Amino acid sequence: MSQLRLLPSRLGAQASRLLAPHDIQMFSRRSRSSGPPAPFPSSKRGGSSSYMEEMYFAWLENPQSVHKSWDSFFRKASEEAACDPAQSRFPESRPSVSSRIKTSKLVEDHLAVQSLIRAYQIRGHHVAQLDPLGILDADLDSFVPSDLITTIDKLAFYDLREADLDKEFQLPTTTFIGGSEHTLSLREIIRRLESTYCQHIGLEFMFINDVEQCQWIRQKFETPGVMQFSSEEKRTLLARLVRSMRFEDFLARKWSSEKRFGLEGCEVMIPALKTIIDKSSEMGIENVILGMPHRGRLNVLANVIRKDLEQIFCQFDPKLEAADEGSGDVKYHLGMYHERINRVTNRNITLSLVANPSHLEAVDPVVQGKTKAEQFYRGDAQGKKVMSILVHGDAAFAGQGVVYETFHLSDLPSYTTNGTVHVVVNNQVCYRRRGHNEMDEPMFTQPLMYKQIHRQVPVLKKYADKLIAEGTVTLQEFEEEIAKYDRICEEAYGRSKDKKILHIKHWLDSPWPGFFNVDGEPKSMTCPATGIPEDVLTHIGEVASSVPLKDFKIHTGLSRILRGRADMIKNRTVDWALAEYMAFGSLLKEGIHVRLSGQDVERGTFSHRHHVLHDQEVDRRTCVPMNHLWPDQAPYTVCNSSLSEYGVLGFELGYAMASPNALVLWEAQFGDFHNTAQCIIDQFISTGQAKWVRHNGIVLLLPHGMEGMGPEHSSARPERFLQMSNDDSDAYPVFTEDFEVSQLYDCNWIVVNCSTPANYFHVLRRQVLLPFRKPLIIFTPKSLLRHPEAKSSFDQMVSGASFQRVIPEDGAAAQTPEQVRRLIFCTGKVYYDLVKERSSQGLEEQVAITRLEQISPFPFDLIKQEAEKYPGAELVWCQEEHKNMGYYDYISPRFMTILSRARPIWYVGRDPAAAPATGNRNTHLVSLKKFLDTAFNLQAFEGKTF
Prior knowledge:
The protein is α/β, with parallel strands linked by helices. The chain folds into four domains: 2-222, no CATH class; 245-507, Rossmann fold (3-Layer(aba) Sandwich); 534-704 and 753-796, Rossmann fold; 810-935, Rossmann fold, CATH 3.40.50.11610. One of its GO terms (cellular component) is mitochondrion.
């Protein structure tokens, strides 16, 4: 660093802006050994002797005392000073004052030229001609940085003169504009710099702190001739532009009044994406996953993914009805999956475009998760076979927070996809010819811009005229290319009128070959038993309570937890954490990959899980016992996420999308934290199958329970999930033999609130053993994680046992149901509060308590059985949530339907409120005592009408 202060300068304070951080390192190395440094002048002309001058004088005395590149540099400088070459190279003493002044000027002139080169590399993009309309500057500012040469008089900024334009200057090693030449005239240097940095491509890269990356970019763009296309490449580009533009023209002619969010004004995006894919295929990529908003999506489907045109065109026909289930979606939201030959490389490549709603950047983390999963299943740890491309609008890219959340995942080990190509579409640099959509009238608000747009010559004509003028193609060849594609479109349009071709399954972005069928026949709509042999339970428990690695020292507190697990195994019981361990472990044994993600999931938010053990004496040494269960088991991934819900939940959704043979779980730190990921829940999880026929088995673990922890750490907002459930509250069901499974098949997602570890174990296993995939929402406990009563026996988990949608009363009240005066239905943690209160009041024979474990789809059959079992009992729904929240609004109409409105069901719980919970501990306890008293006041509802 001390050497930097000694360098001569004519720019003073400006120097600090000209030198990027990596150049400091570059100079400090090269000034000692490798040649001329990056330009960094530090004082005005006429100052004291500098480090450069001292090096020059050392060279005069002994040319071998400096690096050979400095030797070449000083020889050239001396020749230009018209010094005697022999005297310049081998002086017997220091030169005269006049000679030193001349040499000093030459050195400073060379440094000034190097500063000029650096200025273009740093700020050339500010004056690049990026606006095709010619009405805005690239940086929205017409000011030209004073250190960029655009007129001769600005040479004075560097103490250079017009006479210096034809002088030859040594080029620094930080530029490639010379190609194989080491010197150029100043005039040619400026011409090449302006050609590279100030034309129709802007480069902003000097902020990068990696020297190698900066040099790579410089070499690619500065080297003469590198950025030129061959004649064949130009013809390919023209053909792709023809397809891009004529596709939009065809849609505009056939469906002039339909919204399609066309690509007019940005047609070059199609050849750009195809070129990226070509180059990726050439370098070994086999699978490319794309995500993009709606602008240009149909064109990308047609000309990049190569979806059949008739499938696209039939989506415009209002008379055709989809033959598949679900609501469907607008055509510019749908996705696609296609495996084809890349004609440039003649290699197979799989392309998928992920379906996306109008929530623009919401698809970004979904694409990354799907990419990560594809890489994982292929063993592609470096991302050499699977990659992703994300297309953005400029405003959304800058303004949508999920973009940053997705970036934040890029270097986390269990989330990185090893790089993504981002294509940002600027809506005015590449303008929208028709406004926001085809029904828009942009002249209302942007009259001057759209007058200019209407005068704009389309890029296809501009490029065709250029190629015709230079002889690359003839006018006849160009017209034949247009006629050929127009004919393809017309023929596809004719085929699109066939009603048989309209199947939404043609738009799947993640098909699961072989999953829905066995030997060509649809799978049986049954669910296998979810219990497992006791020896498997025991083995998993023993591993869960041990440390598989030798010489691994764990925390003393954790030793106590592991001993507690071992004791439970001896007693054939499990708590919540151990039940989860056994569910995961048993699935791993069956070849099912399990992935658990979220904030602090490795230990567990409530310090109950401990799936990753940390050596207390060796830094970063960890052990995951779950991966030491069996030699040939599937892998288990448990990973603490970044502090993100939106991005991470989208990522896990995409991961679950890639394969049905995995259990993918996302756990919120507290249940209501999912509200910052609401877009993913609303747009992808709740509606994904209806809109896009996308089955997905993702599991959301949402800690829930009113325990006096305040409004942000209590409720997972079950009412939101239940409101979005699609089962009909007014439809009296037909109870067939396969009612349970058919209900699950017809629902959009499954919502459960388990009250026992065994039921949690079964519902996790059922999620994978079902013959289809549905999202599963689980309201998980907090206090029940260590509640002495919240334990299950092995008997409830062994072979033959299964998930209980409803857990009926099994105490004294069940023995004499005709004497029961009140039947309380509830779900989740409040059951334990009710049991305790019932016992304290001695009402075990008069009050029965039934637990609703699966809330949606609603278990009509079992609820009907329970109600009929206690014909003389009042029916009560008791919940700890406020009346306008929780489950009551969902269950009430369904009870009325199944009971034919003959018996009312009374509400017991907290009164309606705005906040989900109080922040005062005492208020919480008072309200708890109040509704428990009401629940067991057998005269509470006498005389009241329903």
